[in-house]
Write a structure and sequence with these properties.
By secondary structure, the protein is α/β, with parallel strands linked by helices. The chain has two domains: 6-92, Winged helix-like DNA-binding domain superfamily/Winged helix DNA-binding domain (Arc Repressor Mutant, subunit A, Orthogonal Bundle); 102-299, 3-Layer(aba) Sandwich (D-Maltodextrin-Binding Protein, domain 2), CATH 3.40.190.290. Helix content is 44%, strand content 22%. The protein has nine helices and eleven strands. The longest helix is centred in the N-terminal third of the chain and has 33 residues, at 63-95.
Length: 300
């Protein structure tokens, strides 16, 4: 037997409940002759008769129809439940957005303004931030665990697309005693060690900055952990300058005995990107993508 047409099943159940083709047709908002045709089509699919008409024109179900009716009603209830479930899923996906981001990006002004502006414009949307490094974020994005991601550095993932939101300069976190006004030449740290994040957390970003440091005669050492708090703890414990974002000079949690030293090296900079899976036009993703594009256009 072919799959039952739910529209035909609904016609049968309505006639059975109303005990009348006339009332059922009115309830279904269709012509009575058309309703009769639909019931006959269902009978052909089922292989047995559903209704008999007596001399008084009363609608009487056959014995087979009496057995089939509760099954048909369950069929309609299950279909309605599935439709409602699909609607809930669709509604949730249209207003809920899982965003990935490196934890150190929380203080980036552009990231903050994009999220706050988007939520102000779309108050029904809800955002949850998932922190990880770029390599992990791109994996989660590709596997559908997150919807979009903020990433740092060059975008090289072939399965996603990115728009550049901002470009930020890098600086050095140093003891305040070493701080100087104005931008300092990178060469002043020649022969010293500078700590930065390990290559495996963001290879493209690492490879865009490590050669610049090494060309200035700097020896690279690597942070055991790359959260903002861990960077600061490493600098306090070892006294080693740490590569850090220039924007972090304005964060309130920077201790008085450490400073962010600006560098006279424009090439020590990187992109902040907004990334989505290529061709992902789901409502929430499309809305965030479009908002970011408009924000960039206004800022330009």
């Amino acid at each position: 037997m072919r799959d039952l047409d739910i529209r035909l099943v609904r016609c049968f159940v309505t006639v059975a409940n109303e005990h009348s083709f006339t009332r059922a047709a009115e309830k279904l908002r269709i012509a009575q002759p058309w309703l009769s045709v639909q019931v006959r089509r269902l009978e052909e699919q089922l292989g047995f008769q559903l209704f008999d008409r007596n001399r008084n024109r009363a609608v009487v179900m056959s014995a087979e129809a009496e057995i089939f009716l509760p099954l048909a009603q369950d069929y309609l209830v299950a279909a309605e439940r599935a439709a409602c479930g699909a609607q809930r899923i669709r509604d949730q996906s249209s207003v809920y957005l899982n965003l990935g981001a490196p934890d150190f990006s929380a203080d980036m002004p552009t990231r903050t303004s994009i999220i706050e502006g988007f939520l102000a414009r779309h108050p029904r949307y809800e955002i949850e931030i998932h922190n990880a490094w770029t390599v992990e974020l791109l994996r989660r994005l590709g596997e559908g665990e997150i919807d979009m991601a903020f990433t740092c550095g060059p975008h090289v993932d072939p399965h996603s697309e990115a728009q550049v939101l901002a470009r930020y300069r890098l600086a050095l976190l140093v003891p305040s005693a070493r701080a100087r006004p104005g931008r300092q030449p990178l060469s002043s740290f020649a022969g010293e060690e500078v700590a930065l994040f390990r290559r495996n957390v963001n290879p493209a970003f690492h490879d865009s900055v490590a050669p610049i440091l090494e060309a200035a005669g700097i020896t690279l050492t690597y942070l055991p952990e790359s959260s903002p708090a861990a960077m600061l703890q490493f600098a306090q414990r070892t006294g080693t300058p740490v590569l850090i974002g220039e924007w972090q000079k304005n964060v309130p949690h920077m201790p008085d005995n450490f400073s962010v030293l600006e560098l006279d090296e424009p090439s020590l900079s990187f992109n902040l990107n907004l990334v989505r899976r290529t061709g992902d036009h789901r409502p929430a993703v499309a809305a965030m993508w479009a908002f970011a594009s408009r924000a960039l256009a206004v800022a330009a």
